[in-house]
Amino acid sequence: MSRLLWAVGIMAAAAGFFFLFQTTRSDTVTLLSLWGILFLLYGIAIRDWAKVPFKFLIGAAVVFRLFGMLHFPNLSDDVYRFIWDGRLLAHGYNPFLYLPSEILTTAIAFQAGLTEALFQKLNSPDYYTVYPPLLQGWFAAATTLGETEWATVFWLRLPIFLGELATLWLLYQLLNILGKDQTQAQRGVLLYALNPLAIVELVGNLHYEGLTICFLLAGLYFYLKQKQTSSATSLALAAGVKLLPLIFIPALLNKKDWEKSLKYVLTAGVVFLLPFLFFFNLTIIENISTSLDLYFRRFEFNASLYYLLRGIGTFVMGYNPIATIGPLLALVSISLILFFSWSKKLKLSLPERWLFALTTYLLCATTVHPWYIVPLLALSVLSRFRFPIAWSALLPLTYVAYGQSGFQENLWVVAVEYLVVLGWLGWELSHNKSVKEFRQ
């Protein structure tokens, strides 16, 4: 192995260490500098990967994720809601029924160990939890196994770390199934395994998209292996971690065999809904619906189409029309997802249909945090498209919003991000044979 690649590895380890253990999201200059270094080193490693044994690079990817197991999340405060919900459930209280702000001074909070200090760290104390029952069960287990916040965070992270290991294996297997040779398969796995955004945002900052990706790829793997029940179960588990994978089901339906499709949907539906039975209460439906409605109507961060329409709407109407634009974009998103899932004119593989379904959702969303696109990154490895890799390099720029003076989003940064990503996507589409055939 060349001295250059040894230097790249050492620099990546050093930059990763300082990033995880010495940086906060309000340290904008340091944060972006380290992101820049990490992505530069990532580019060099991907360019020269063939000069290094594949197992060595995979080992490095695993070690970098192990680094993430050893620090407290520094770029996201979602972990505190995980702990809050977990302590509630561990003490026998249904987390879907209580607003943190309503129970802080009650006996419930006292019995569950929900302190004022923990409450102050929550980013949405006036919203009902939206984390599905499958996650809630693990939150409760983690808070039981870990007596301190640090110990709890370790247990909360463990499934994500194990899921990432499974994801690397699944990507390699799927690339083989899709007809890639060994060299192509190895490079594809490394595109995901060494990507700084995937490493930092999943294990490092404790986002369960890592577990979602694992179940999602397992669903695809079993589907291509003609194991429908296992596929439906895996996809249901992915949706049980994050609701979003439900958008991938339409692409799996076979219009020529509705009986088979119905069996698939019913299997996935039963597995997905089963954990809800342990929490069943009519109030839950109302509370989750309320929080999801607020998500689409009030939350806004790093959006593309929404910001454009918001600007036009504000200019015309004199106020922010998010209450109207959010649901409208959701309908547009659903329509386009169905188009990409079912269009016969588009010569896309199943992973590519999923890729564009998710891309559509993200472009229509009112909120796009950096970790939201990591599943897109995994799907891109299985496709002919690489624009998610460019997106992963640009998304860290959104942390500019968390400066020393408080949260303030810079729309110029957002504009640059989406212009580059959409430009890259446009270039790839213009050079894609299936798209050319569709236009003709």
TrEMBL record:
UniProt entry keywords in alphabetical sequence: Membrane, Transmembrane, Transmembrane helix
Keyword Membrane: yes
Short name of any one Pfam family annotated for the protein: MptA_B_family
GO molecular function, one term: hexosyltransferase activity
Origin: domain of life: Bacteria
Protein name: DUF2029 domain-containing protein
Record field: transmembrane: 5-22, 28-45, 52-72, 154-178, 190-223, 235-253, 265-285, 322-342, 354-373
Protein's UniProt keywords contain Zinc: no
A GO-annotated cellular component: plasma membrane
Species for this entry: Persicitalea jodogahamensis
